[in-house]
Amino acid sequence: MKFIQKIGLVIFILALAGFSLLPFYGSYQLEKELVISETKDIHQEAMVDILQPMYGKVYTSNIKFIADFNRYFDGYNDELKSAEEWDKVIWDDYTFSLTKASATGPVSESPSLFLAVTILLGAFGALLYILPLYRNQPNGIKNDGIYHSSMKSRGLLGMITGSWLLLFYIVLYWFPAYLTNLVLMVDPLSMALSGNPASQWFLYGLIYTLAILVMGIRMFRKYRGNNYQTIRTASVMFFQLAFAFMLPEILVLFNMPWHDFKNIWPLDYSFFYDYRLEGMLGSGALGMFMLVWGIILIVVGVPLFTYFYGKRWYCSWVCGCGGLAETLGDPYRQLSDKSLKSWKIERYLIHGVLVFAVVMTAVTLANYFMEFELLGYATNELHTVYGFLIGSAFAGVIGTGFYPLMGNRVWCRFGCPLAAYLGLVQRFKSRFRITTNGGQCISCGNCSTYCEMGIDVRWYAQRGQNIVRSSCVGCGVCSAVCPRGVLKLENAGEEGRINDMPIIIGNKSISIKS
Amino acid sequence: MTGHSTKSKSKHFVIIGNGIAGVTCARHLRKADQTCQITIISGESKHFFSRTALMYIYMGHMKYEHTKPYEDWFWEKNRIALKQAWVSQVDTDKKTLIFSDDSTFDYDVLIIASGSKPNKFGWKGENLQGVQGLYSIQDLELMEKNSQAVKRAVVVGGGLIGIEMAEMFSSRKIPVTFLVREKNFWDTILPEDEAKLINRHIKEHHIDLRLETELDEILDDGTGRVKAIKTKSGDLIDCQFVGLTVGVRPNVDFLKESKIQINRGVVIDACFKTNMEDVYAIGDCAEFQEAPAADRKNIEQVWYTGRMHGETLAYNLSNSKKVPYQPGIWFNSAKFFDIEYQTYGFVPPIWGEEIESFYWEDSKGKIAIRILYQKSNQAIIGVNAFGWRLRHEYFDSAIEKGYHLEKVLGELGQASFNPEFYKSLHKEVLKQYNQENKRSIQIKKQSFLQKLIGSRA
C-alpha cells in the first residue's frame, strides 16, 4: 500500500470514529418556548405541562435527556391509555424534534465545522485511499486477494462493518433522536437546498449519495478499461445525485412535495398513500405530472424498457438501492449464496413481497376512493406492518447491514417488489439475455462467484445455454471476470434466446437428431 | 430420445477420474439410461472441481468450493456414486480394480479418465523441497506451503501452466523469473507476432522473462531445500521456489502391469475402446491410434476435448449404433495475465505457401487478430484473437463453410463478442486491410434504431 493510501485510510477511520461518537457529545437543555415552537397547537398545552420537570435542567448526554423525555411523555400517555381515553393520547412523536431543538454546545454553534471533520473528511480520506488504487497497473480484473481479505470474506473486519451498519440503520429508523447532533450539522446544507432544517432522512440521503459517489470512483478505478462498468456506474451516480438527492430538495424549496422522479411503485410503496396523492394533486401542473409520470412508468415504462433492455435499465443503471449495491456493495458481491436452495427461498420471498405490496396498495386505493369509510383501520395497519417489516427492516437494516454477510443485493434479490415485477417481464418477454459463447466455458466458476444476485451462471454457461433469469440485474460482472470470453450481455431477437444444447458446439460425432 | 439402450439394467459403469472427461461421460450416461449403475473414482478429491480454476484459489479470487461446478447434492440426486480412492492396479480378467489400500472394486465397464501429470526431465535437484509442478489440488496445497517466505520464484517452461504460475506469484507480489526455452513465449503454438505481444505483456507485469534460457540444475541449500538455479548459459539465480511447468503427460503409470495397451497414453480406437473388452479411455490420458483429424494430435489434452470425449463415449455406451469420435472445427482459449486469447480453426505458428495471413494489431500492441486463409480461393481456415472476444458460433460456421476473407472482415462487428460499449475495432482493421490490399470494404451501417435496441445484425 502506498504511503498516501495509508494516510487516507487513517483519515477515513478517524472521521468515521468521530461520526460514530459525535451523537454522544454536547449537552441538552429544554425550555418552555422550545416546546411551544416545536409542537402542534392541539398538543401545546399538554406538552408544556408534561415536560415541566425538564425545563432549565442541563443534560450532559442525549441518553439521559431522551430517557427523561420518554419517562414523562410515556407516563402521561400510559395513564390515558389505561383510562382508555384514546382521543387524548398524543400519538405524534416529538422525541426527535425536541431533542434536536434542545441541543446546545459546539455542534449547534458551528455545524459546518463538524460536518467538515466527519462526513466530508471521511469522504476525502476515502478518496485518498481510492484514487491511487491500481495505478501503474495494466487494465484487467482486480480480484487478487479477495478471499484472503478479512473485510471481503466474512472475516472479523467484515463482521465489524456489518455490525456498525446494522446498528446505524436501527438507530436511524427507530431511534433517530440519538442522531440529533449528526442531523444538526447538516442543517445549513439542508437550509441551502430546500430552505428547511434537516431531518434524519436528509442526513441519510447525504451519506448515501456520498457513498455512491466515492465508491463509484472506486468502481472507475477497479474496472478501468471496461466501458460497460464505467458508463453504468456513472449512470447510477448521476441518478442518485440529481434525481434522488438534489431535485427532491429543490422541489421542496419551491413548496412542492418531496418527489423522486425515478422511484417507481411498488419499490416506492407509499406512492398511492393518501397523503402522497393529495400532495401531488394539490401541487398544480407539476404535481399532476408527478402522478401521471409515476403511473406511466409503472404501466408503460417498466414493460417497454424491460422488453428492450432487460431489468438492468433500472436495477443497475438508475435505481438508488441498486446504485448503493453496485458501488458501496461491490466489495461484497461474491458473498451471495449460489445454492439452489437459496434460489427457491428467493422466489417465495420476493414474489411474496410483491403480492403484499399489491394487496396493500389495492386496499389503500379502495379506501381512498371510498373516502376512508370502510377500510381506514385495515389500511393503517397494513401501512404500519409494511413500513416496518419491508420498508425499514428488510430494505434498510437487512438490505444494507447484511452486505458483508450475504452480499450486496440481499434486498434486491429477496425483497424488492419492483425487482420482482421487472423480473417477471425479463423472464417472459424480453430481448435481454446473457449469451453463452458456444463451447468456450471451462467451468472455472468466476462468473457464479462474482454474481451478486446469486445466480449460478456457470450452470448454464458450461452447458452452452444462454442465461435467462428473472433476477439478473445485468451488472455485467460475470462477463468481465470470465477468463475465456464466454459471456456477453445482449439485447437481441427473442428467437433462440432460451436454448438447450444437448451436445455443445465443436463435437461433430453425434448429430442431435440421431 | 437417444435410441435403444443395449445395456442390461444393472450394468455398472466405473469411471477412474473425476475430471471434465469422466464427469461429462457420467452425466450423459445417466441422461441416456436411468437404470445403470455409475461410480466415479478419484483419489484427488471427492467432488468434481474445475482444474483450470486452481490458480484462482491461490490468487484469492475464489475458494475451493467455488470451483465445484455442481453442488454436492447433485451426485446423489443423479445416482452417481463417488468414491475417493487411488487405483493402483486394474485386473481386466476379473474385471476388478485394486486400490492403494489393497481393497478391490468390481466393474462391468471401465472408463479410464485419469488425466495427466506434470513432466520432469531428470534435472539435478528436481526433487528438492520447494521444487514442484502444478496440476492437482495436492500440488496447489504444496505450492501454498512452499510459497511461505519466498523472495523469488523461478518458473521453468513457457507454456500455459508456466504463465499461470507466474501470474499466481505476481498476485502475491512475489518476484518471478520466467525461463522460456523458445525464442518467444509459447511460440510452438503461437505465430511470432502473437508470441511477442504476450512477451511484452509478461514484462509489463514486471516478470523477469528470460527467453531462450534453459534450466541446467537446481541447487541445494544444504538442508534439502532449493536455494538457486543454474541456467545452461551458466547464470545463477537465487530463489526459494522452482516451478517445473514443462508440459504434462498421460497419467497411466498405474496401468503398466495390466493387460491394457499403453504407449504414451492408453491406446484407443476412434470409439475410445482399448485393446481389452469393456475398457475405454477418454480425456488427457487417452492416445488415439490414429489422430482424429489431420490437424489433430493423437493425444488431446484440452478441457474441451475431454468434454467431447465424454459426450461421445457416453453416447456409444448407451446406443447400439456406435459413432467414431469426430471433432468439429478446433477451438481453444486461454488468458495470459490480462490478455484473453481465443482461437478457432487452424492457426499453426508457421504456415505453408498455400496459406496467406492477415494480421492486425492495435497501436498499443495489446489487441490483435490474425486470420489465415487459402491463397487459392481466400477461404478462411483459422483465426487467432488477443484481447478481443470472438463469437464461437460465427467462426465455427465461417471456417467450416470456408467464408471468403472479405466477407468475414465485413462482418467482424457481428462476429465480435466484446461487451457492450467497448470501442469498435472493426474500422481500424478494415482500414489496414483496405490499405494493404487496395480494397474498399465497408462496414454495413446500422440504423440508429438498430443501434438503440442492440440489434445484432
From TrEMBL, chain A:
| PANTHER family to which the protein is assigned, alphabetical | FERREDOXIN-TYPE PROTEIN NAPH
Domain (4Fe-4S ferredoxin-type) spans 432-460, 463-492
Can you name one GO molecular function term for this protein? 4 iron, 4 sulfur cluster binding
Residues passing through the membrane, by range: 7-25, 113-134, 155-175, 201-220, 241-259, 279-305, 348-370, 385-405
- Its signal peptide is none
From what superkingdom does this record's organism come?
A: Bacteria
Protein keywords: 4Fe-4S, Electron transport, Iron, Iron-sulfur, Membrane, Metal-binding, Transmembrane, Transmembrane helix, Transport
Pfam families per UniProt: Fer4_5, Fer4_9
Output a single Gene Ontology CC term carried by this record: plasma membrane
What is the protein's given name? 4Fe-4S binding domain-containing protein
Among PROSITE patterns, the record links this protein to: 4FE4S_FER_1, 4FE4S_FER_2
UniProtKB/TrEMBL annotation, chain B:
A single GO molecular-function term is:
oxidoreductase activity
UniProt protein name: Pyridine nucleotide-disulphide oxidoreductase
Give cofactor(s), names only. FAD
Presence of keyword Flavoprotein: yes
Keywords in UniProt for this one? FAD, Flavoprotein
Which species expresses this protein natively? Belliella buryatensis
Q: Where are the transmembrane segments?
A: none
Q: Any idea where the FAD/NAD(P)-binding domain is?
A: 12-294
Family named by the database record = Belongs to the FAD-dependent oxidoreductase family.
